[in-house]
Amino acid sequence: MLKGRESLIRLIGKRRTLSGDLSVILSALPPLVRGEKVTAVGDEEEDVASTSLSASYLVHCPVCGTAMRGGDQAINAHLDFCLVKGKKRKLTQSTLFQLKYSPKAKFESNSPSNNTLGFVNQMGPTAVSFIKDSDCQKSENLCVHATYEDQSVGNLCDEKVDALYQDKMPLGSNITTSQELNQLILETLIVGRRFSIEKELRLGTSIILVRDPNNIKDCNAIKVLSADPGCGKVFGYISRDLSKYLSPLIEKFSLSFEGCVTSAPEHIFGPVPIRISCLSPASSNMIDSEVFRSLWANVVHVVESAKTNPTSGKTKYQENLCLLIKEVLQDNRHLFTVDELSFLESFLSLSNDCQRLFIRLYMRKGPWFRLSTMSYVEILNIEEATKELSERGYFRLSSAEVPLDDLKRILNVLAIPDLRFLQNIVDKRKNLSSRKQDIIASLVSSYEGRHPCLPAVLIKKYGVFVTISETAESLFWRAQRLFFLNGEQDLSAFLFADLQIIKYPAYNCITTDKIFRNRSDMLSFEEAVKVAQIMDQSIEENDSITVAQCIKMSELGLSCFSEHAIQSETTFLSLFSASWVYSKVVLLGISFLEKEHRYIDAITLLRRLLSVFTCDSRRGYWTLRLSIDLEHIGRPTESLIVAENGLLDPWIRAGSRLALQRRILRLGKPPRRWKIPSFSMTFKRKLNEVHLQGRPLNCEAGMKSRFYGYDGEQCGVEELALQYYSSAGGQWKGVQSESGIWLNIFGLLMWDIIFSDVPNVFCSRFQTAPLDLDTDNFYISRKDKIESHLQNIQAGMAEEILIASWQSNEGTSCKGVNWDRHSLCDLRAVVTCVGGSCLASLCRHLAQDYGSWSSGMPDLVLWRFHGNYTGEAKLVEVKGPRDRLSEQQQAWLLFLMDCGFNTEVCRVSHEGLHNS
What we know:
The chain is α+β, with helices and mostly antiparallel strands. Helices cover about 45% and strands about 10% of the residues.
């Protein structure tokens, strides 16, 4: 994978649908969002104009509303003046972030009166405690103050609270005996009524479930039959989501289910509510089976997630999206036009069927869906919901005249037999290809030539196809981004939190600055993300022309931004700027150009990045690549100068700094340079080494080395080294961890520091780390707390802090902490044997620059105890026959040696070979 692509993919997250040719889409994008005049709705109406390149364009300050010329310098100077004077308005409206979550039903004694928020007195047994509004306004610029104690309550809305959220897991997911299994009643629905024989069902009708393995639509299908002996009437089917897990339970574990109808359907083809229970006796061995418990837990999860809130009539995923929209509109109204606000708010007034259908399709891959095959348990009338969503602008339906690109996507929805059927109608020529894409290409060719009626034939034979409209897709994508602040999370994050699959940590949201100050910043960011997606997709399709266009557009985007704004000291909020996204596209473009040996173009882009981003931790890699590429084109003297100037840059750190020093020593030999640099002694420092010989399984270049271990089993070099140290190497215990165990220890020891109260670093309740963890701001803004905490660690309290942190936070997600990889026993042993002084130095180093130093640590951590609970630890970097130390690994080893750690390099060679 090209350097920088993995980071770009994480930034893009879930891809938006790009219809049409990528080059055409890219050419249609403006290089910058220019002077778009919109009406923002907040406490009062005001004009919010985006930054214009023309100084003659009048814009209004988003802080005080003053009109001014649209020049970058004028705007920035005025904003700085406004913010320094503290003229930014306070936001006083109540938000979700003012809730203090708790899984138990208890009101705090100091909770506010019912008049504070109208729905307190409407709440059932679910507990919600509030922070007083006065507490939220203590600071002049304080906008939002929130406390999160437990994320199991993930479905709160402004009016209702779902009582089902009291339990961390759905009822019945943790059964332990056969009796509990047989007594459990599941409430679900009969669907697929259009395929049933019996059209009328009465309350109390007895039913049984029977597998339908020959069903061509679903191999896991389960029929619902009449329980009357000899009747055999088919009433319908169990939903696809539920039968996916019930089916293997019936087949593999011989379970049988019976039940009854609990309510007559509203109309003849509507879903029928039923209750079912398990009849077959289950052995304790079966219930203890991991496969059985996993399947049964999934069954219960599907049933529970389909339930509606009895007080609002909404499903949980409806509540989640409505909550998301309300929060985004409440906190970010200045980023939307009046029409956009009206569109999003109209979603909240849609019928349940419409909301559910939209969310179902929005979460699916798409972009086109076949209406006749849709079947959802909780949606009563899909056809009517589709019609209403289409009329309201949320859906777009297929018609007799569709664009060519849409036709290709619609055809891709069909199965090969359906495509064959269409091919026989519109093209009688024999086509022997069995590939789906070849058949689609043939149909498209026929459509462009002799059969323009193909879309009409499609609709007549297979019904209407539906897709989410571009407006709806764009606005909901924006709302999701604003809520989660990343592209990787979506509505499933609510589900994971509700079911306690992921437990998010407790922290306070203290917001004083907006992520996007105005609509212009947001639109520029969205445009940049779209360019990034096109770039990634073009590289995947090996479209070098579009890649070049993306690189050019990103370079232009960087040059259009205010140099003053970018060259100022970078903060963590810059991660949400268009310039940051464009820099990632440019970096990926540099990797692409270097692969194509277009070094001159790569050098131009590297110089652009270094000139624009003067305060950025990525400058080390950029400077190193610039020096290397200059040498590639035969300019070693210039390459040397670049490397020498790089050492004067305080933002070049860790392995990149060491790599530049190595280049200077190699390139700076006489006659270019006569004086030996003082840092040359760094590379002469003696690293402790031990040499092992192993019996190799493979000796081929390019393959990972494999050996026979001391126990005769196959293993890698790290496992072989562990076996050596546990026996002949000194009776050490240890684990192969690289950076993992140290990030675990750092996260646990510094937990209270990581999630302490710092403004603007927590803006969403689905974060596993503060936004500034990878930046210098993390240490600077918490320096006093960090140093005080490190004194306790140095004084020998590390093990006590570790145990307390583990016990109070076990299972809670935190960046760098993996609860399953290392046991508390191992972590305690490492902390005890390493000692407080070394641990404090290591934690301070990570706190000061987590982003640069969170990788490259030694492979093995070894420890052994002596008497009186004292011990020693050793960190070992393992290298195979063809491996060498990277600059980052060497930088870590040198730092650890300076801190007092016992370090070692273990070199493994083949038998008969010796390392020099």
